[in-house]
Design brief:
Radius of gyration: 14 Å
Distance between the termini: 16 Å
Helix content: 25-40%
Shape: globular
Number of helices: 4
Largest sheet: 6 strands, mixed
Structural class: alpha/beta
Number of strands: 8
Order of helices and strands: EEEHEEHEHEHE
């Protein structure tokens, strides 16, 4: 699967890691998994979408609208969420900006970074308690989620 969802070691965040070509359906499924977590738990206050290993995106306007609708529901449970998108390629960065504009009224702190170093530095500054090395994907535990939720 080109988009995996993992829980951070500190159990305060979720990381979605894209590899290969990531589709809108995969983003929707990951968004749905995050929504389920925030509806049913007290933790999970930050989210990272790491597209560093991804090679492409296939996402439609409709996909983005469905993801944004889920984000609006998630904001009811996490009105002060911190969201980081790591988007090294221009097309990934532009998609991140488009998503960021669609959620700007939710009250979330969002940031789109070009690389992990910049991104995790921002996350460290914007998530109390500080998100640090424990938030990096290589120290995460896999998180199962229902891929039939759409």
């Amino acid at each position: 699967m080109p988009l995996t969802t993992e829980v951070t070691k500190d159990r305060q965040g979720i990381i979605h890691i894209g590899t290969g070509t990531v589709t809108g359906e995969e983003f929707f499924e990951a968004s749905h998994a995050a929504l389920q977590l925030v509806q049913n738990t007290q933790n999970f206050h930050y989210e990272v979408v790491d597209l560093t290993p991804a090679t492409g995106l296939q996402i439609t306007e409709e996909d983005l609208e469905q993801i944004t609708a889920q984000d609006q529901l998630a904001a009811i449970y996490r009105p002060n969420a911190v969201i980081l998108i790591i988007a090294p390629r221009d097309d990934f960065f532009e998609l991140g900006q488009k998503w960021e504009r669609s959620v700007r009224d939710l009250g979330w702190s969002t940031h789109i970074a070009r690389d992990r170093t910049e991104g995790f530095a921002w996350l460290h500054q914007n998530f109390p308690p500080p998100a640090d090395e424990t938030a990096k994907p290589e120290t995460c535990s896999p998180l199962p989620f229902d891929s039939t939720a759409r």
